[in-house]
Every structure is written in structure tokens, then in C-alpha cells.
Amino acid sequence: MIRAALGLVGLLGALAVVPPASAEGNTDYSVLMISRERLEVATSCEIGIYLNDQLAARLFQEQSTSFNLPPGPVDVRMRLLPGQMPGCAAGVEDQRSTRLNLKAGQISKYRIATGPHGLELRQANLGY
């Protein structure tokens, strides 16, 4: 009984040291929107969106995605993903990424297009 009481007192003491979670503080972030709304990429294959070399989204035709990111630089890379569609097997592809410098409170919209070196991002109008 004494052990349980001491354990409970110790646990409560440890919880008092940990600061409470709060939604307040540094809430500055930027919004990055990437769309594949237009038929500029002539493939039915799924396109993978990589942020800082981590797969963050997968897009088919007529889809878009958005990310709430901290301000600062972010590397964006795209590649065709192998999947259910025939002919979507990954081959030799360009591993270049686009570096975007995001600012707090900024909303940026890009669309996926095909350029001379493969898939690329082009700035798009926010439309509102």
C-alpha cells in the first residue's frame, strides 16, 4: 500500500515537471498546394510528391494536395510511381528537385507539368 502511494506521488511529481501541451506559441506556417488538375502530364500513372526526399503524397489526374509546412527551404521532387496502370514501371529518371523558400503566412500554388528534364513545378494562380 505504501509502495503504491509512493508510486502515485512520484508519477504526479513527474507530471508536474512536464509542461502542458498548448496550441499557442509558434503557429506560423506556410501552405504549399500542388495540383495535377490540368492534362499537362500525358500519362495515367500516379505521380509521387517527395518533400525533402520523403514521399508525402500520391496524385492521379485531376487531383491536388496541400501541405502546412514550417517557413524555410523545402526540396520538392516528383516521379512516376509504379502501380496498377500498365507502363508505369520506374525507369531511369531525373533526380533533380526544386528548392522552394517558404515564408510564414504564404500560400503557394504550383501545378505539375512536363518540361525538358521531366516533371516540373510551375507557379499557378491561386484563383481567388
Automatic annotation (TrEMBL):
<keyword id="KW-0732">Signal</keyword>
<feature type="signal peptide">
    <location>
        <begin position="1"/>
        <end position="23"/>
    </location>
</feature>
<protein>
    <recommendedName>
        <fullName>3-isopropylmalate dehydratase</fullName>
    </recommendedName>
</protein>
